Amino acid sequence: MTEGFTYAAAGVDIDAGERAVTLMRSAVEATNRPEVVGGLGGFAGLFALDTARYTRPLLASSTDGVGTKIAIARALDRHDTVGIDLVAMVVDDLVACGAEPLFLQDYVACGRVVPERIAAIVTGIAAGCTQAGAALVGGETAEHGDLMGADDYDLAATAVGVVEADAVLGPERVRAGDVVVAMQSSGFHSNGYSLIRRVVASAGLDLHATPAGLHRTLGEELLEPTRIYALSCLALVAELGVDAVHAFAHITGGGLAGNTARVVPEGLVAVLDRSTWSLPHAVALLEEHGVPRTESERAFNCGVGMVAAVAPEAAQRAIDLLQGNGVPAWVAGEIGTRAEPTDPVARAVGAYR
Hey, which end of the chain has fewer CB within 10 Å, N or C? Predict the structure, then answer.
């Protein structure tokens, strides 16, 4: 006769979860903003919105994950960067409408709580929050031992931001003649990894080797964290104003054309000149192993992680401000009227240099 069931025997180690919280506590608390009320460990995160700062504040929210890039992190047993990716995916969606990221909450589901691994993941999330100026006000770690493998995990997060109602950015502000300013990506960011992993496996590529054209191993290239543009984009709006900065598009799944199209109003077209930047070597490597160019441009950012539609007279100032904040930027195209009713909303011309 059994002596009784225990939660640990069923696959949930409460003690390990508590140790993980202890290990991550200092990193989480380092993200605090003055508006954060209380500390880590409550049932809910509290944030005091200073309504005196705003005339008509709108709250913005975004939820996303990292996707199968986590499989690369597991293969290399490196877990301190995917948290940055997680933050980037949500805060850079927020800033696309002009919202300032305020706070974020994460969700980590795993097969087994390894405190050091969970702490590394959340420390990365905290690092991303610091880059975005957002507070990490809490989260949840769930151990699903009977549903996931012991070393499996997945990540998700929700971020909340705020923007003045009369300062919301988007297609309503975009005009013919606007300049499309491109901001360089740091790599593949967090999109296209199901395709990347399929090619790596099929071609027998070694994550620990350094392919021709790269200056680091393929694994390091694929784990490069997503660039967080939020504070640089907000600084651009603060300096130039919404009369000059009309829209941002975060280049994620769907590629450059597909995401730029989301901020182009009916009747206009964004024409992007590929010759204004070089195709990243890592993308070219995947094309060498069978990925068609058309598929690269749909699945990957191809070197551009964010674009801004700005008034033409503000374009050079915008580029100077972005580069001053460490974000390489250039004029990649312009907004024009459609030549034909059947033209796509966004299209690319020319070849990569």
Answer: N
